[in-house]
Design goal:
Layout (H helix, E strand, L loop, with lengths): L7 E6 H14 L4 E4 L1 H5 L3 H11 L3 E4 L2 H8 L7 E3 L8 H6 L2 E5 L2 H10 L4 E8 L7 E2 L4 H10 L6 E7 L10 H24 L5 E5 L1 H6 L7 E4 L21 E13 L4 E2 L5 E2 L4 E6 L17 E4 L2 E8 L4 E4 L10 E6 L6 H8 L5 H4 L7 E5 L2 E6 L3
Parallel strand pairs: 1-19, 2-3, 2-10, 3-4, 4-5, 5-6, 6-7, 6-8, 8-9, 9-10
Antiparallel strand pairs: 1-11, 11-14, 11-18, 12-13, 14-17, 15-16, 15-18, 16-17, 19-20
Length: 383
Amino acid sequence: MNLVEKHCWAEISVEAIKNNYNFIKNSFNKPFYVTLKADAYGHGAKYLAKLYEEMGAFGIAVSSFAEAMEIRKTGVKLPILILGYTSPHLATQLSRNKISQCVYSLEYAHQLQRSSLYPIDCHLKLDTGMGRIGFDLVGDREKAYSDMKELLSLSNLRFTGVFSHFPVADSLGEEEIRYTEKQMELFDEAVEYLTRYGFNFKVVHGQNSAGILRKLSGSFNTMRAGIILYGMNPSKEVSGCDLTPVMEVKTIVTHIKEIKEGQCVGYGFAYRAEKPVTVATIAAGYADGLPRFIKNKKYSLAINGREYPLIAVCMDQCMLDVTGGDVTIGDEVLIMGGKGNQSFDRVASLTGTINYEVPCGLKRRVPKVYHEHGKIVYVEDNM
């Protein structure tokens, strides 16, 4: 493996990436953005942007100007949409780099108008119930419509798209279903109204991963695929059977020792042996993305197809109870990822979070190794 150091790394299956992309493409008859924000949910935006461009993706969605430029600098020509805030002083750079910007308020639109030397392609963000950013169709629809109509007077902003976001589309509870249906009604009404008033939206999107799997109808002509690209489901209720987990995070065993009954391991007496135990130390810790308190949740790591209890988590190293196992220094260890007991879903459930957060927690120092058909095709090593 072409790494500076075999320490802690993420293995990413290009075959799985292609499988998930083609599942979405072949199952849902609409073009879609590939969401590569947060470094493609920890999977590496630069390499994946190139791969998705080769596969014919419609466009790329990111969260910030820095993320957009990181991708542009790789030579990718696909349309890029920033879903969140960009400082107005970068408005001219948006135009020069052919990056579309989300516009979510009249005040922000005026700031972009004043700052840009050239026209900017924009997507209008409608708040239909997320309560985050967007023209507020829930709290004050009359003001939202009035503000949006004024946008047409801004010569430097070209509104080529419109979108919203559905925060409970991943739940099939009665209240959540009604909430999402109401959001879609508000969205469709607004798109129709704005189109009659003079907006010419080419791209209309609102289906996130959950919306895609649920085949939410409406005025959408484009989708935004996120977590499902990486082989994870939006929730237990909303899932896709043909998704393949993409990533496994691995390290190696660096030390093995025997400890006696009563000996302690880790900070704060993290573990106290009740009998003689064989302890293996591995070269990864919470600074590599493994949640620190998962040690209290009966979590095990996999070595040579067998699982061993995690007994202490430090910043850069962890300790396992490998008593009775066939473990040697240099053995590879599956920390998290894949389909089994180390899956991101299980890590998330044990630590009280969602699967999205776990791969996003991978740090820059963890290299990404992309492989296909048993061969390494690319390595991104930031060290």
